[in-house]
Design goal:
By secondary structure, the protein is α+β, with helices and mostly antiparallel strands. Helices cover 17% and strands 43% of the residues. It is built from 1 helix and 6 strands.
Length: 119
Amino acid sequence: MVKIGPRNPLNRRARIRTRIRISTAGEPIRMETVDLGPGGAQCLSPQSLPIGGSFPCRVWLGEGADDAWVEVVARVVRSEFRQDGFHIGLQFTGLNRAIRETLKKFLDRQERKVEEDPP
């Protein structure tokens, strides 16, 4: 687990695999995170998304009694094709305090889990 930007909690990132669904005009796009933080995520996607576009987004915060989909708005800040698919950078916008706290608690649980069960 790698953290970046420890001074700013919104820059905190953890290598966590979870599901994200982006709502578009067509079918929802199902993606998997490469890393996740309270301010956004990097995802693997089967298709590209326009940079600068904002979309309703659901993030799966699973594992445990608090399993839930969290709904946010995600702005696409990066979309590039690589061998394993499209790498999409998302910035979560308009987060309220409750959603930010839910994301933070999920990251804390995941980090404790890694510390307790090292590879």
